[in-house]
Amino acid sequence: MAAPSASTQHSERLLRTILRIVPGPALFTALWCFVIILALNALQLLGAVASKITLVIIPLALAVLLSMLLNPVVDLIQRWIPKLPRGISAIVVVIAFFGIALTAVSIAITELIGSAQNLSGFVDQSIQVLSEWLKNTPLNINSDFLGEIQMKATEWIQSNWQSITNNAVALGSNVAAMGTSTLLLILGLIYFLADGKKIWRWVVKLLPKFAEEPTYQAFRRGAKSLGSYVRTMLLVACFDATIIGLASFFLGVPLLIPIVILIFLGVFIPLVGPVITGLIVILVALAGKGVSTAVLLAIIVFATQQIDANVLQPLLLGNAVNIHPLAVLIAITVGSSVFGLIGMVFAVPVVALINTVMRYYVGQDPFPELGEDITLEGVASSTNDNDLPEPQSDIK
Questions:
Q1: Distance CA 284, CA 287 (A)
Q2: Could you read off the pLDDT tens digit of each residue along the chain, which spans 396 residues?
Q3: H or E element at residue 59
Q4: CA angle 320, 333, 312 (to 5 degrees)
């Protein structure tokens, strides 16, 4: 056996000296800090690259989330008609989904455009009603102070509404980019529904051999977590829109359809969205029907959101998305600062996926009932991959 070189001996002596001088815990902490700094720099670089190709990333990310929602429907069709090719089932489901979605969106846009100015006017009027009510309370708030708050609130509403309008015009003007993204979304969704397992198998095969099976098992859990999250948010959005919409209808609150649309969409921005849309609904009720109706509707909105947070979501999600509310707030803040509104929508699903995958890697399997009997090789043997390239890693 060859003797170690002089440089190797010098390195060993240097390492032993460092270990004698620096306490073990301090060295361990320093190494972890170095790893965290590297990870943050990698995330910053990834965010910078992703921000340049949002027209590709956002449609594909939407396609992944929608595939989690629609995949059970495709599976159901396959059980009903076993001889029907899965690709045909996927196309039928996608056409039906986008047909329903486009009809609902067209109705929503028509209603929102027709009532946008009324909505702004109702919010402005509600601020005036609230100011008058506060002046007559025992608090005896100064009218000049209330007038200044009202003026600033009105200016904020008008300026933000103008910003929303300008963004909508700018978005509509880029027809070619929107068309490309929409086509990518539709085709990506069809492929994910039809060949999702084969696509993911091909991706995993790009990894070193020793990492293939753990990665496959980890992301099996991640897919279950994402699916549970998407389906739960859809059910919660329908529940909120139905309860608050019916309450608004029976209380005679104006702008019923825009209210239902706002409540439904607000659910998909956790923590922040329901609060903002709930406040808008209460302000509309205050302006349209007075303080008593607004207070009653506020109680209903609060009770509905509490049922969501404490009954529906824990019951439906279970252990699928086990994230602390502070982590949710941080994720939404980071997502909105990097990608705007779409970042707020995707923040929680991405964190839920990362959380589930990392928990599996460190030995805290969030879905032990899945087991590991379905392996990557088992999937390979049960699928026809003649039309799919299968790269093999050189790293063993």
A1: 5
A2: 455 566 666 667 766 676 666 666 766 777 778 778 887 777 677 767 666 667 788 888 889 889 988 998 999 999 999 889 999 999 999 999 999 888 877 777 776 666 655 666 666 666 666 666 666 665 555 556 556 655 665 565 555 555 554 554 444 445 455 677 888 889 999 999 998 888 888 888 888 888 888 888 888 888 888 888 888 888 889 999 999 999 999 988 887 887 888 888 888 887 778 888 888 888 888 877 777 888 899 999 999 988 887 888 777 766 566 677 777 788 888 777 777 777 788 888 888 888 888 888 888 877 777 766 566 655 555 544 434 344 443 433
A3: helix 54-80
A4: 35
Amino acid occupying residue 378: G
What is the C-alpha to C-alpha distance for residues 150 and 128, in angstroms, rounded to an integer? 7
Distance CA 155, CA 352 (A): 38
Helices (H), 174-319: 175-204, 209-251, 256-266, 272-289, 291-307, 313-317
Tell me the C-alpha to C-alpha distance, in Å, between residue 367 and each of 303, 321, 360, 364: 31, 11, 9, 9
Q: What type of residue is 368?
A: P
For 396, which DSSP code? Answer: -
Give the separation between CA 53 and CA 47, rounded to whole angstroms.
10
> Taking the CB of residue 301, how many other CB atoms lie within 10 A of it?
24
Residue with tokens 């990665």: 215
CB atoms closer than 10 angstroms to residue 257: 16
- Both tokens of 250, joined, read 């029976």
What's the rounded Cα separation, in Å, for the pair 165 and 120? Answer: 13
- The backbone torsions φ and ψ at residue 228, rounded to the nearest 5 degrees and listed phi first, read -60, -40
The answer to whether 316 touches 235, Cβ cutoff 8 Å, is: yes
Distance CA 271, CA 259 (A): 18
Ramachandran region, residue 178 (left: φ > 0; alpha: ψ -120 to 50; beta: rest):
alpha
CA-closest candidate to residue 68, choices 285, 178, 204, 227 = 227
In angstroms, rounded to a whole number, what is the distance separating the alpha carbons of residues 152 and 30?
A: 49
